Amino acid sequence: MTFNDLAAVIKKNKLKVDLTLLRLAYDFACEAHKGQIRANKQKAIEHPLRTAQILAEVSMDESTIVAGLLHDVPEDTHKTLKDIKDDFGSEVAMLVEGITKLGKLKYRGIDRYLENLRKMFVAMARDIRTIIIKFADRLDNLETLSALPQKKQIRIAQETLEIYGPIAQRLGIGVLRTALEDGAFKYAHRKEYDKFTKQISSRQDKLLQIVSKVQVQLKKELNNNNIKVIDCHGRAKGLYSLYQKLLKHNNDINQIYDLVALRVIVPTIADCYAALGVIHSKFKPLKERIKDYIAQPKPNHYRSLHTTVFCDLGDIIEIQIRDSKMHEEAEYGIASHWHYKEAKSCKPEEYLNWVKELAKWHKSKDDRDDYLQSLKIEVFQNRIFVFTPQGDIIDLPESSTPVDFAYHIHTDIGNQIVGAKINNNIVSLDEKLKSGDMVEIIIDKNRKGPNYDWLKFVKTRSARSKIRQYAKPHLWQRLKLKPWQR
Ligand code: MN
Fold first, then answer.
1. Is position 370 within any domain?
2. pLDDT at residue 132, rounded to an integer
3. Less CB within 10 Å around the terminal CB: N or C of the chain?
4. Would you state the pLDDT for residue 438?
5. Cα 76 to ligand 1 centre (Å)
6. Are 34 and 143 found together in one domain?
7. What total of structural domains would you count in the chain?
8. From the CA of 115, how far away is ligand 1's center (Å)?
9. Can 331 be counted among the known catalytic residues?
10. Which of 17-21, 262-266, 281-285, 375-379 has the lowest mean pLDDT?
């Protein structure tokens, strides 16, 4: 790969990047890495160059792409962070510093990795672009992983699947998440990967053929109904996420409907709903498979309409309908905030509340089990989204209860909760909430404080710590709580 290949991607994506500055950064990196050879026998400069290219592919800004070129300089060469700051300014230097600080701690499972994760969330809270550079860096490392010893291959692949994949998903960066996971899958689970590709690929290919036929029919139908189709294409679900989904469904592939999906991109939200109507008049939808993620976005802000339909030959396919902006956000998530100036459905900060929370805990004196548990819940566990009676969306970990919901709204609401309604039905305070539930909290202003028994079922860290603030230690010790419930 050459500098011109990088410049070509920048031109293709019409990025506002000063090519003279970029060239300077490239020359600086070349000079610094001069004579170094990587395990795959390539010149060392190839790797930062491709890292920068990936960042340009996802349309990141100038400083991030420059930092991508320089990201290994302080760690691997005689040039220092100060040299970078002198030549390229403090913003680029800060990004490179963030990457360097993530360190080279060896991954041995999440439990032993906490210190590195803490560092990562601190760096992310300071500037989220750090982790996006890390994703690009890792993605390129996966491409050349076969040159490394097997033990190292497995370690890097596992770290990618267990840490980077979930974080990319949480940030809504669909393209990077899939690329990272599928790149790591074969190294982390070699046998399953081989078996799985054999089992799935031919099936996906066959479905893609069906989809391409339906696609033609559908386009015509939408045009006849005066709905402009900006794009219509089939997409095969990422192998690793398919593998995960199959594990959840007892390996029954017949329960998986989105092996391949047909994506329809239309100009406006109104067109999305109109298109859904047209599609349902033409193809019979499966019951309970119509999902409106426009009215109820996923916690990572994913929006689309999904429906699963029988097409003419009796095959079942999933159709995803969205406008261009939603498509952009589904593919690039938080990274799309550096693309276009037009208003986004949410601000980058809204993606980042959880990052800030995790970074903050770093500063408090929580013990490691507590932090680990919180991490697993906040990042590595499924999230649900529920509604206030006013229609506001609240994002909570799976198995959260009305008490978690109440504390999420406000500490006083949590402290004064006496009852709850889910979808207008009275429920007990330990009822598990489900995505899409409308939750109403009943309070008693005279209530003095929380019930320590709630510690037995609350799920979120904020509820737990607020209940604890009230509790006298001798009281809650008597409850015989398990370590993570304390
Ligand atoms: Mn690197």
1. no
2. 94
3. N
4. 86
5. 9
6. yes
7. 3
8. 20
9. no
10. 375-379
| Contact in structure between 266 and 272 (CB atoms under 8 Å) | yes
CA dihedral 420, 426, 427, 432 (to 10 degrees): -70
- Number of Cβ within a 10 Å radius of residue 27: 12
Q: Return the pLDDT at 343.
A: 47
pLDDT band at 373; cut points 50, 70, 90: low
Catalytic residue among 46, 75, 221, 315: 75
- More confident of the two residues 485 and 322: 322
Ligand 1 midpoint to CA 151 (Å): 19
Shared-domain flag, residues 167 and 245: no
**Residue 440, strand partner residues:** 421
Known catalytic residue at 76: yes
Residue 216, domain CATH: 3.30.460.10
What is the 137 CA–ligand 1 centroid distance (Å)? 5
- What range defines the domain where residue 317 resides? 191-332
CATH of the domain at 146: 1.10.3210.10
Cut 0.70: pTM above it: yes
